[in-house]
């Protein structure tokens, strides 16, 4: 199974160094396609747009998801069950249905497609993932922690910020990473809600792939793989450092 998963990625990486533009037969080694990636201005602009959209989406999703999870966990009110169901709908809804529905909504309220509509669309399907992750963490949280903070004189807001949020940090971090990844990778919803000026990197890659499988796309994919592996290794290193520091007397 691992060979089946990683085999195509290895072939993709190898052919990113192929001199052939057709990318069918191996003709020789070259780094030309990596240079063309950096020299492609529309592609670099799309990458910049994707990073900005993903960052804004992550911040808004973390704020909305954490606040929503705390609201549903801390307070009891009529309609809470229906609200939980509605929040989970975007997670299960097909992306093409969400993309079309958002396009119809923006057209109905006369909102022009652009950068703002892409951010709104991405937050719509990303923040439920943060909310579900934080909700799962809250379910196992000891309520005595907040009660002890309130008994010691902390206000509800101060108790939440200084006691609850640190306990939720792993779930918030996991939700933020998931939201960032989903936003960077999204194609279908973005296709229906973006304008040509606000095209993200996946849309640009999709457009280039329809013309032909250029080795430049292989090179771009390898750069993404290297960046992902680097982030994973750095995260593992930080976790090991944190565990070693916490184990010291």
What does this 3D model show about the protein?
This protein is mainly alpha-helical and 249 residues long. It has a domain of 149 residues: Orthogonal Bundle (MetI-like fold). Helices cover 79% and strands 0% of the residues. It has eleven helices and no strands. Helix 1 crosses helix 11, helix 4 packs across helix 6 and helix 6 packs across helix 8. 27% of the residues are buried. The mean pLDDT is 85.
CATH homologous superfamily placement of the domain at 52-200: MetI-like
CATH class of the domain at 52-200: Mainly Alpha
How large is the count of helical segments? 11
Order of helices and strands: HHHHHHHHHHH
Calculate the mean pLDDT score and round it.
85
Report the β-strand fraction as a percent range. Answer: under 5%
The radius of gyration is: 22 Å
CATH architect. name of the domain at 52-200: Orthogonal Bundle
Number of strands: 0
Low-confidence stretches at least 5 residues in length (pLDDT < 50)?
none
The geometry reads as globular
Q: Which terms summarize this structure?
A:
single chain; MetI-like fold; 249 residues
